[in-house]
Amino acid sequence: MLGVDAVLRLIFIEKKVAQKWLEAEPVQPDTPNIRLESNSLADLNPCPEPSTTAYLMIRNCDETTNEAPPSSQALHKRVPLLLRVLLSFRMLVGLAGGLLQSSLNVSFDSTLPLIVNALFGWQQTGQGLIFITILLPSLLQPVFGAITDRYQQGRRLLAAGGCFLATPAFVLLRLVTQDTLGHKALLCVLLLIIGLAMAIAMPAIIAEIGATVADAEKNHPQVMKRSVIATGWSLVNASYAAGCLIGPLFAGFIRNAAGWQTTTWCLGLLSAVTGVFLLLCLGGWIGRVRKEAVMPRVDI
Known about the structure:
Elements: H1 2-11, H2 15-22, H3 38-43, H4 52-67, H5 71-78, H6 81-86, H7 89-105, H8 112-120, H9 124-129, H10 132-135, H11 141-150, H12 155-172, H13 181-219, H14 229-258, H15 260-281, H16 286-294
Helix pairs in contact: 7-13, 7-14, 7-15, 11-13, 12-13, 12-15, 13-14, 14-15
C-alpha cells in the first residue's frame, strides 16, 4: 500500500499545473486578401504620423511604471512559500486544531494498555483489541466528510461539537475501577463515544485547511504563482505527527505523577478547551464572521 501511495503521489498532476496543457492554443484566422478599388484609395485619408513629443512621453511613462513596482508586493514575493501559507490566521488555527485533535486521539497509546492490564489482567491480545473501539467509528468519517462538504458554514460547529462530545466521555473514564463485566462494557462504550467524536471533528478541520489553501491561491494568484496544495497538506501531516508525539507523553507523564483518575480529568479539560478554541477561531474569528454575515449588502 505504501508503494502504491508513493507511485500515485509521483504521477499526480495538480489542476493548476495541468491548466497550461488543458488550454487550447488560439487559432489565428486566415486574413483574406482585400482588394481596394482605385476610387476607394483616393477617398481614404492618410493616417497622421504620431508626433515625436507624444511618443517620448508615452515611452517615459512606461519606463517609470516598469521601474517602480509596488514595494509591498515585491516584499511579499520574497517571502518563502511555506511562510506565506503559515502567515494565514485560518491556517494557524487549523494546524493547531489538528495538533490538539491528534494529541487527544493518540493519548491512550501510552496509558490504556497499562490500565486494562492492571484492572482486567489483559495481555497483549486484549490490549490491542481494546483500540478497535476507538478506531471503529473512523469508518464513518466519509459520512461526516460529506456532511462537512454540504454545509461548509458548519465546519466550526462540527469540529467544536466533536470535542464537546468527547469531553464527558474522557471524564467518565475515571469510573472504570473494577474487574467486572459492567465496567468493561462501560469502558468500551466510552471509548466508542470518544472515537465517534474524533471522527466528527477531524474532517471539518482538514476541510478548513484545504479551503484556506484554495482561497490563498484564488485571492493572490500573482503571489502564489505555483500551487501550494502540497505545501498545505505537508503542514497537516506535520501537525498530526506533532500531536502523535505530544499526546502519549502528556497522558503518560500525568498518569505517572497523579494517577489514572487525574489523567482522565486532564484529557477532558483539554478536549473542552480545544472545542472552545475551534468554536471561536476556526474559519476566522467568530465575531468578525458574524459581523460580516449580518452586515447588509449595498449595491453601488
